[in-house]
Specification:
The chain is an alpha/beta fold. It is built from 17 helices and 10 strands. Strands 3-2-1-4-7-5-8-10 form an 8-stranded mixed beta sheet, with helices on both faces. A two-stranded parallel sheet has the order 6-9.
């Protein structure tokens, strides 16, 4: 193990020694999730029993210091209590559990780092991680995230969900289309939260140098996805149905999440420049599972609030934007702000993102300041998308997002030029 890794607690070290090597590992990060984590754990235990009855398995709960009953609920859930849904499977034994607080900066990434560490120590062959606030997880999710690795030789499995058109707006407007254009892989939910990965890739994740930065928090998902695609790992997606969790209004305070995610995305553009330069177009990624139509919970969007935040920023923030945006982009921002119906077009939006990436690379501003100043512009793009799609169907909204992704691909040459012009 790397000397940079914090030491494991005596209890965890003892549990690892007692368990020995495992075939599969499921990690669940948590922080005060007593309302939902019992359901997630039951689904995991049932999934392992039903789909991997002969595998030596362990469940790792990496907890951020919960003060409610989260850890107690994880501890109490046993296979025996699930007999009514396991009539078609007889597990060979109980699922071992390791329940431990993680160390480091509070955040999902620090929780995952502990999962990676334990996976490496146990020499797990296949791993998956599941969010602890899921209300739609089923035992089949465990199969769909692990089976491609266990049986088919894949090294990374991203989730493919049916999501409401206004759920995942950071993914839809920035992370998915930019990642797709950069690395040429159509991974639809690169920051979906629930992933499968090989034990070898878990060990590779551990080698990352900066666990004091945004990767320790919300940056972890795009870090995992980008590492897999940039390092040419064999990647797949698994259709998991609906992702029902606690959705957030795009107009609510998503700034910290966006700063952490986009900072990580831009940092990895620097790290993997040789992997994405020269990539043209994109290719589909294999899908496990059977995609089907799903009834989805609506995500409320307060359009007036989005418009107000954008227009106020267009008045207040040009002195900051001038540090990294071109006159052409600034003019497009002003024009959209003064239009009767805000319409921040794809070409202008993609150029803003590309200039922000180049500005991030040359350290035009502190990362949190630069990316934080993008938040109202992102809200303007979301408002544009809402106005374009609110009267149409979900399928038409997805077609509109595909058009945006293709526009990013078309602009790949400009993205490279702006990036290459950075000293």
């Amino acid at each position: 193990m790397s000397p940079r890794l914090p030491p494991l607690s005596a209890e965890v070290a003892e549990a690892i020694a007692r368990i020995g090597k495992v075939d599969v590992l499921v990690g669940i990060p948590s922080f005060n999730n007593e309302r939902t984590i019992g359901h997630v754990v039951r689904a995991v235990v049932a999934g392992l029993a039903r789909h991997f009855p002969d595998a030596k398995a362990v469940l790792v709960n990496s907890d951020g210091g919960s003060t409610d009953r989260t850890r107690e609920l994880v501890e109490r859930t046993e296979v025996g209590s699930l007999a009514e849904i396991l009539v078609d499977a007889v597990p060979s034994g109980t699922t071992a559990k390791i329940i431990t607080p993680y160390r480091g900066i509070p955040g999902k990434g620090s929780a995952f780092r502990t999962v990676f560490r334990i996976a490496a120590e146990l020499e797990a062959k296949a791993c998956c991680v599941l969010d602890s606030d899921l209300r739609s997880v089923t035992p089949e999710w465990v199969e769909l995230l692990l089976e491609p690795i266990v049986t088919h030789g894949y090294e990374f499995v991203a989730p493919l969900y049916a999501r409401h058109r206004y759920d995942g707006t950071i993914t839809n407007t920035i992370v998915y289309p930019l990642t797709r254009a950069l690395y040429g892989q159509q991974i639809r939910q690169p920051i979906g939260g629930d992933f499968g990965f090989s034990g070898d890739l878990a060990a590779r994740f551990l080698e990352f140098e900066d666990w004091e930065g945004p990767v320790a928090q919300y940056g972890i998902d795009i870090f995992m996805t980008t590492t897999a695609v940039a390092e040419k790992r064999k990647v797949a997606q698994s259709f998991l149905g609906a992702k029902i969790h606690d959705p957030k209004d795009p107009g609510s305070d998503l700034a910290p999440m966006m700063v952490q995610v986009v900072s990580t995305l831009f940092t990895l553009m620097e790290r993997y420049e040789k992997s994405w330069k020269g990539v043209s177009g994109s290719e589909p990624v294999p899908v496990f599972g059977f995609p089907y139509a799903v009834g989805l919970e609506p995500v409320p969007v307060k359009l007036d609030r989005l418009l107000s935040q954008y227009r106020q920023a267009a008045h207040d923030l040009p002195p900051i934007w001038e540090s990294f945006l071109s006159k052409r982009s600034l003019a497009a921002i002003r024009e959209a702000a003064h239009a009767p119906a805000l319409a921040l077009g794809d070409e202008a939006w993609i150029r803003i993102v590309a200039e922000a990436a180049a500005g991030f690379r040359r350290r035009a501003l502190p990362p949190a300041t630069l990316i934080g100043s993008l938040v109202p512009l992102y809200l303007g793009k979301v408002a544009t998308f809402v106005a374009e799609t609110e009267a149409g169907s979900a399928e038409e909204a997805e077609i509109r997002l595909e058009e945006l992704a293709l526009a990013y691909e078309k602009a790949k040459g400009e993205i490279e030029t702006l990036w290459g012009a950075t000293p």
